[in-house]
Amino acid sequence: MKPTPLHVANGRPLPRDATPAAGPSFQLGDIAYILFRHKWKIIICSLLGFIAAGVVWFTFTPKYISTASLLIRYVLESRDTGALEEGSQIMSPDSRGDAIISSEIEMLMSLDLAEEVAKSIGATNILAGFGGGDSDIEAAAYIQKNLEVKVRPKSNVIGVSFEHPDPKVAREVVTTLISRYLKMHARIHRALDVLDDLARQADQKRGLVEQTEGQLRAIKTELGIVSVAEAQKSISDLVSRLRTEILSAEAELAEGRAAFARITNSTPLPATPSTNEAPITPPIAISPDLTKAYQSVVGRLESLQKREQELLLQFTPTSSFVTKVSSQIKETLTERDRLVAANPGLTNTPIASLTPPGKTTVSGKTVDPTAEMARIDALEAKLKVLREQWEEKKQEALKIADKESEIAGLERKLAITEKQYTYYSTSLEQARVDDAVSNSRLSNISVVQSASPAGRDISRLKKILLGAVFGGIGLGLGLAFLIEFFTDQSIRRPKQVTDALHLPLFMSLPKMVPPPSPATNPNGSPSPEAATTQNELAKCSEALRDRLIMHFQIKELHHKPKLIGVTSCGHGAGVTTIASNLAASLSETGEGNVLYVDVNQRLGPSVHPFHKGKEVVEASKALNAGTRDSAQVSDNLYMVSLTDPNNRKVGVLPKRIANLVADIKTSDYDYIIFDLPPVTQTSATPRVTGLFDMTVVVLESEKTHNELARQAVSLMAETNTEMVAVLNKHRRYLPRKLDSDL
Questions:
Q1: Is the dihedral of CA 613, 619, 622, 628 positive or negative?
Q2: Residue 673: beta bridge partners?
Q3: What is the model's pTM?
Q4: Which of 24-28, 97-101, 273-277 has the lowest mean pLDDT?
Q5: Mean of the per-residue pLDDT values for the chain?
Q6: Distance of CA 663 to the CA centre of its chain
Q7: Which of 546, 600, 614, 651 is the most buried (most CB within 10 A)?
């Protein structure tokens, strides 16, 4: 089970409930460190970007581009035609923001508009520079792909641009596009797209008008009239006139019969001769006074009847003049009938008068009986014809009355249909006019700039070049920051030791390049490269030694021997090199003996520069005065191994170290350096560090994982040991003037 990580500060564990102060935040120097550390990645990626830009520069052929601008003042919405009438609505771009401009952009970018342009120009002309073709759909898709419509923020001016390998085609496409767009705008917003519907409706209404007119014509032809009202008035007048003539003829007939009766001293002739009539009786003698009174009544009756006929020619039968005369006629008839009823012979009584032979005087007039009889026959024939005409006109009037409702319905239908036909015809003509002049009379849209002469479009080339260059640089930077913050979690800088592990950093050892083989010259002296490496390593070891001695003095740690353990978080960190060189450097002070103890049980005895071919002896021989010389490798420096080849158990090592520490406390060694195995959950190092005065944790720069180091420090902190850190193989990427690390 992993122990709970502990915080440590200044090499000592903190209480479990304590939290160390937060380390310094990310600074500008850290960015510089990342850039210099990954400079080759950034440089290579940037070079790739420049190479790609160069390839584009030499291979890319700019197309020709033509531009135009449109000003959208407002949008006129109309339900019927383009005229501003009831039902129309003006919408300004300011009232709805970008919605109207966006809708106009959608129209300009629509595939339908592009297809109209392709059909107008010709698909072969548009696709000529792209392998050819004659498909309008493909040409429209190409136009839509290479068309750019944009508007500046807070502006109602739309910019239109199109690019094509042929400059003529580029300009022609923009010109045609604007022309077709203006027509599309008018069709959509001003209902000009209903031309076909208006034409269909107009044709339909015209057909209904013609059908209704045909039905009316057939009915009027059947009745023989032109206008119902005029026909009714004409027939009414004719019937009235015939009625008047009939009455006049009847009166004349009655007068003629009465006159004939007086002439012949017989009863008046009947209206229709009858073969069953009785023979005429001879007249009865009447007194002259009674005859004179009867003749006066008959004369007055005739005069009133004539007067009535004259009035009927001027007035209606209900007129007061006519009714007055009619009442007088009734009174006279009553008087006549009373005289006839009292004296029936009055109708046959001859009236004496001075007239020529064969003629009779009636009311002072000389009348021929033969002529009077002919007149009576003529009046009867006339009356018959008048009555037939009267009946005929009455029948015509009845026929017109029967068809009047049907004719009125057809006339109302005709009036409505004619009105509808007129409306649709007017709307159709207006729509056609607006459609014909929509591209030149749209007051709400103005062409700020017509299609410009096509020129080479280098803006796209610039974008591609800048994209390639900055893309390469961005790729390098992105890769550097990705590695630095996410992929590589190792400890790389001295500040990470103090910030992440909260350990005092004693030394930051630079990465030393090993000398090439052979490391010595033919005369046995070391090569210049090997000498330089040894000198650098010696300087670092001396600095670490001085720092360690100073630390013990500050802590007032004066007992002997001082036990120092050197360990790491993994193999290859350089523990043995640092421990052996530290022991050698401490032995060179000349103040006392230094014992180097190799505790690497798994690897067996180690080989050191000061080994000089001698076999490493066991630790017990270095403590015995008689056998200590066998462990000496140089002046004041002794080296032993704690490895037991016969016992490889891990649990034995802490006990052996504990026994060794108990034995060497009485020895004359000043410093004992323990070369410990790496810290793991199963190694003995975390369990023995509590026996030492100090534990040096060697961290391999850019290799030791940050979290692994934290866990190792936490394990060793449980033994309450004092720990310091040494960052080994540290590489400086920043220039000295920019590097903040010592």
A1: negative
A2: 564, 596
A3: 0.53
A4: 273-277
A5: 77
A6: 87
A7: 600
Helix axes of 459-482 and 28-37: crossing angle, nearest 10 degrees: 100
Q: Are 457 and 61 in contact (CB under 8 A)?
A: no
Farthest-apart Cα atoms in the chain, separation:
219
Residue 609, Cα to own-chain centre: how many angstroms? 78
Distances (CA, A) of 664 to 14, 73, 195: 31, 100, 114
CA triplet 163, 164, 165: central angle to 5 degrees? 135
CA distance 233 to 496: 122
The owner of tokens 């299609």 is: 451
Are the beta carbons of 258 and 267 closer than 8 angstroms?
no
Residue 122 CA to residue 111 CA, distance in Å, equals 15
Identify any residues that bridge with 531 across adjacent strands, giving them in sequence order: none
Tokens representing 442?
A: 């749209």
Residue showing tokens 């350990």: 503
Q: CB 85: neighbour CB atoms within 10 A?
A: 11
Q: Return the minimum-mean-pLDDT range out of 113-127, 451-465, 515-529.
A: 515-529
Looking at the chain, the whole-number percentage of residues with pLDDT higher than 70 is 76
> Quick one: which of 281, 303, 272, 429 has its CA closest to 347?
281
Give the whole-angstrom CA distance, residue 239 versus residue 243: 6
- Identify whether 518 is preceded by a cis peptide bond (ω within 30 of 0): yes
Residue 665 has pLDDT above 60, yes or no: yes
Of 217, 190, 241, 230, nearest in space to 87 by CA:
190
At 704, the amino acid letter reads T
Whole-number Å distance between alpha carbons of 21 and 24: 9
Other Cβ atoms closer than 10 A to 75: 23
Both structure tokens of 712: 């190792």
Q: Which CATH class is domain 502-514+529-730?
A: alpha beta
Report how far residue 41's alpha carbon sits from residue 335's, in angstroms, rounded to the nearest whole number: 150
Ordered DSSP codes for 537-550: HHHHHHHHHHHHHH
Residue 142, both tokens: 């190409």
Neighbour count for residue 131 (Cβ, 10 Å): 6
**Chain region(s) in the chain for CATH 3.30.1890:** 63-190+438-456
Least confident of 15-19, 446-450, 577-581: 15-19
d(C-alpha 142, C-alpha 572), whole Å: 63
pLDDT at 30: 78
How far is it, in rounded angstroms, from Cα 690 to Cα 676? 13
Interatomic CA distance for residues 8 and 14, integer angstroms: 5
Q: CATH 3.40.50.300 in the chain: give the residue spans.
A: 502-514+529-730
User: What are the Cα distances from residue 459, in Å, to 67, 148, 471?
Assistant: 13, 13, 17
CATH fold label, 63-190+438-456:
Bacterial polysaccharide co-polymerase-like (3.30.1890)
Q: Residues 518-539: pLDDT tens digits?
A: 555 555 556 676 777 778 888 8
Lowest mean pLDDT among 291-300, 465-474, 707-716: 291-300
pLDDT of residue 351: 42
Here the tokens at position 359 are 């003629």
